[in-house]
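Supplementary notes for students who missed Thursday's class. We covered one full example, reproduced here. Read the sequence, then the structure, then the short commentary at the end.
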Amino acid sequence: MDWIEWFGYLASVVVAISLTMSSIVKLRWLNMVGAALFSTYGFIIGAMPVALLNLFIVFANVYYLQGIYRSKDQFKLVAVEASSPLLGFWIEHYQSDIEKYFPQFSTDSLLGQGCYILMRNSEPAGILVGKQQLHEFEIKLDYVFPAYRDFKTGDYLYHSSGFFEALGVKQLVSYTAVASHQQYLVKMGFKVSADNAALYQYKLS
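Structure (token representation):
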């Protein structure tokens, strides 16, 4: 088997992986890369229908990705009761995925917490659960549904919503030992505590 065949298999694998992505943004990016590889493969072997079709798919992905990044989404935080059936439904629906990022979280811990549904363009996009003590707000759950993981929802929550400032909060804290969640918090502007590697803090200006 020569390198050209391996190149074709690589293109196939990338396209296949793209179709497993729950995030539309990740799907578009990976599908674009896979289509670009397939188009190149088609040109190399002289299969013009393969080359031109996949070149069209590349441009289609570019077009839709531009639309995604340029779109101005509408966000809103909707307060709900801890006993809300809607909140319970979404937590149960995504329970296994929530456990990956928040292994200590359970529905039993909802009582006495502030509970909110994160809305994006009138669609539920995530869940926020936390508790305020004076000027500090501890985030117990900041879960974004898989289809909306392009950081726009987190950017709204922490940088432009004004939600925490309106509560008089001066510092956010979150405890996590999950590497992927730690990376998310750092991207959102949190800093790890010098005294506790599992404590992440974000000071509001």
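Commentary. The two ends are 60 Å apart (CA to CA). The longest strand covers residues 123-133. If anything here is unclear, bring it to office hours.
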